[in-house]
Design a protein that fits this description.
237 residues, alpha+beta, Chorismate lyase
Length: 237
């Protein structure tokens, strides 16, 4: 075991999973505390915490304050959806990625969105719309609001060359979020942008992410007709 193996939370997650599957830590077993694991892996305690939180979200371990972390007695297999990098989605299809920023402005979010942000009063957001293309064809229309109270550095970005999707993933941490998936009829504006007919069925993802109690960003992604996604199932040990 060498230090470079465990510099990322993903590598620690993989090692914890290996020990669970190998029954080094059987169902119901209490695993070592974060401080001991950090010392063993030669990393920061926060890195271990991130790995264990990810496994808890998958239902493979159970975490309780003062009781520690134990391997789940009855792990649940759950579908997981990662925040995708749209550029990589396009490349995975064997197509050429292009990006066009359509608009950028500081504005207060609509009342319904402000409520979802849990904002008590008016907040300033950056509203960015953009079109992502695959080999010259519309791929997804992005309508995004960024909370400038949580991510003030976004105000200095014009998002003309680097899209907000990639910039946020690289620069602004988040702790959790919610994702809504739906099939919705294209509005006239969406139809025009995506070269579709009004009312055409679109696959729509609405994603809201948080940094603890503060909302980071809300994105509505409207994919061109015919789009589908693939997700993974976490295998139970």
């Amino acid at each position: 075991m060498t230090e470079p193996q465990f510099k990322s939370w993903q590598s620690i997650q993989d090692e914890v999973l290996r020990r669970i599957h190998a029954r080094e830590w059987p169902p119901g077993a209490v695993i070592p505390n974060e401080a001991d694991l950090a010392q063993e892996f030669g990393c920061a305690r926060a890195t271990v915490n991130r790995a264990l939180r990810a496994l808890a979200e998958l239902g493979l371990v159970e975490r309780r304050r003062k009781a520690g972390t134990r391997v789940a007695l009855h792990p649940v297999s759950r579908a997981t959806v990662d925040i995708p990098v749209i550029r990589q989605e396009v490349s995975a299809l064997g197509k050429i990625y292009e990006y066009r920023r359509l608009s950028r402005a500081r504005a207060a979010p609509p009342l319904g969105l402000a409520r979802r942000f849990c904002a008590e009063g008016l907040i300033q957001c950056l509203h960015v719309t953009a079109l992502h293309l695959a080999s010259g064809e519309p791929f997804v229309f992005e309508d995004r609001w960024i909370n400038l109270e949580t991510a003030p550095s976004a105000d200095a970005q014009d998002f003309k060359a680097l899209n907000a999707n990639e910039w946020l993933l690289a620069n602004v941490p988040y702790t959790h979020g919610e994702i809504r998936l739906a099939a919705q009829a294209a509005t006239e504006a969406e139809a025009m942008i995506l070269n579709a007919r009004p009312g055409a069925p679109l696959f729509v993802i609405e994603r809201l992410t948080w940094d603890h109690v503060r909302a980071v960003t809300f994105a509505r992604l409207s994919y061109a007709p015919g789009h589908s996604i693939v997700t993974q199932l976490g295998a139970a040990p």
